[in-house]
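[Automated response] Your request has been received and processed.

Submitted sequence:
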Amino acid sequence: MNFMVYFIPMVVLGSFLFALALSKVRYFRTFFTLSFLVANVSSGVAYSILFSNLFSETGPVNSFLYKTFGFTIPWFSDPQLALLSIAIIVTWKFIGYYGLILFAGMEAIPKSLYEAAELDGASKWTQFWRITVPLVNPALTTVLVFAVNLTFGIFTEPYMITGGGPMRRTLTFLLHIYTTAFQRMNPSYAATLAIVTGALSYGCVILVRKLVEREVHLV
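Generated structure:
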């Protein structure tokens, strides 16, 4: 659940900003879209190894920080920071995919609504809150459902980078099920955890839909 607190706000905000930026691009839009989608189709093992080396205690990022500012950051050794670092990595992977869903929702909004709002003197900020946000609700709900489901299925990144540590702070649901079944050799308890995880995931999805989903009519 702690991972969800970090991941969902970051990925939703980042995806929204990506979708807004993409809507302003006039040239090479396909290139920028595919550039961000490359992260989504990348191998989880490959980029986990890449990030673990980049942000290790003696990696290039900490070496640059030490030479330039005289300090290093314990990206994966500090309990709280390790969880945030994993969340940032997973956000990087999915921001393009989720952003494209939101972008498709924005493109479906009739341009005549914005033109009418401009004639009425509405600012860009007012148009965003009164037109874009309400009418992009189906796409936003989809992104939230995907993100919530994903938080219950994260395994590769914490397994490859931290192994669930330090102090079990990055022990996700799937990683806990795996260690219970194959390291502690308790498959029956692991099966029970899997059922509970599935039930929690389903319950969170229903809650998100109840809280966020609204019926939208585009005219």
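Summary generated for your ticket: The mean pLDDT is 90. The chain has one domain: 2-212.
If you did not submit this request, please reply to this message.
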